[in-house]
């Protein structure tokens, strides 16, 4: 039987993940009192359920502190479990709470950021025990669902490291959150081909034009090799995400194509991969 404990920061997507797991055939229970967890675990291990997910978070209040002992007892009794911790940056969490106009469980009538800070301290022991940590700060719902399916349905090995590949236009500035920046303005520019000018790097015609250049193929292969070399070293240094920015003049043609092609190459790795196109909708 597969037993997953879903926890993490309030507003990081726990309810959405439980719904995804339920749709995938998991028997899901949310916000069970800590005092009942042991009884619940015994019942499910005696039953016929093959996949179970239990949502636990800061709403358990003071009794959450008892969970550490409960988890230790479960291990001693031979009950196997996995912990999925959903994390998110404070800035994004504050924005989400303001947009939904909900109160943070620990903020009361005070500031949301103080509640988030206190919650992170309270949940630190669970984060340290987590088998999988997913940072949802910049994930779309469909991207989160893809990751959940890969880990808990397809059973693909997951590494708690996420790579965002971002296209951009130098004329609009380098993305401030970039870890690595690459300039592909050395490639032939589709902008100067009349029939390609109004298209983007998502269109097959533009992709074909860009990738016909030997330099594009060589650059892509060398970039893939370099990233596969660098990522384990970043992980060893404690990083859990990497933003790789690829820029051309306007961020609509060459950079978009290279980002799309690089994503294809990295999708079969053990890392989480997503792509974004910051300036694709802007006029050149």
TrEMBL record:
Residue span, RapZ C-terminal domain: 162-281
Keywords carried by this UniProt record: ATP-binding, GTP-binding, Nucleotide-binding
Residues that hold GTP according to the record: 57-60
Gene expressing this chain: rapZ
Limits of the RapZ-like N-terminal domain: 1-152
Nucleotide-binding as UniProt keyword: yes
SUPFAM superfamilies named in the record: P-loop containing nucleoside triphosphate hydrolases
Organism per entry: Mobilitalea sibirica
Binding-site positions, ATP: 8-15
Pfam families given in the database record: PapZ_C, RapZ-like_N
InterPro entries: P-loop_NTPase (IPR027417), RapZ-like (IPR005337), RapZ-like_N (IPR053930), RapZ_C (IPR053931)
Entry protein name: RNase adapter RapZ
Superkingdom of the organism of origin: Bacteria
Range of residues in the leader sequence: none
Molecular function, one GO term: GTP binding
């Amino acid at each position: 039987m597969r037993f997953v404990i879903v926890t993490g920061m309030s507003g990081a997507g726990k309810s959405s993940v439980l719904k995804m797991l339920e749709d995938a055939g998991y028997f899901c229970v949310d916000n069970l009192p800590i005092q009942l967890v042991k009884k619940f675990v015994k019942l499910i291990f005696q039953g016929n359920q093959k996949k179970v997910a239990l949502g636990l978070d800061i709403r358990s209040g003071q009794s959450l502190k008892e969970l550490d002992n409960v988890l230790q007892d479960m291990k001693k009794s031979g009950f196997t479990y996995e912990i999925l911790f959903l994390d998110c940056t404070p800035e994004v969490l504050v924005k989400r709470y303001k947009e939904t106009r909900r109160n943070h469980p620990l903020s009361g009538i005070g500031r949301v950021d103080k509640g988030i800070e206190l919650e992170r301290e309270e949940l630190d022991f669970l984060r340290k025990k987590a088998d999988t940590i997913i940072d949802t700060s910049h994930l779309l719902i469909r991207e989160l669902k893809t990751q959940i399916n890969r880990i808990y349905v397809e059973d693909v090995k997951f590494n708690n490291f996420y790579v965002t590949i971002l296209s951009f236009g130098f004329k609009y500035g380098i993305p401030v959150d970039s870890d690595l920046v690459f300039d592909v303005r050395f490639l032939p520019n589709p902008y100067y081909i009349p029939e390609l000018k109004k298209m983007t790097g998502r269109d097959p015609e533009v992709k074909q034009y860009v990738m016909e250049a030997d330099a594009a193929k060589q650059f892509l292969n060398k970039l893939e090799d370099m990233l596969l070399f660098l990522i384990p070293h970043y992980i060893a240094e404690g990083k859990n995400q990497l933003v790789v920015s690829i820029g051309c003049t306007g961020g609509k043609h060459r950079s978009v194509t290279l980002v799309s092609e690089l994503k294809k190459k990295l999708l079969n790795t053990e890392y989480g991969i997503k792509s974004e196109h910051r300036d694709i909708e802007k006029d050149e």
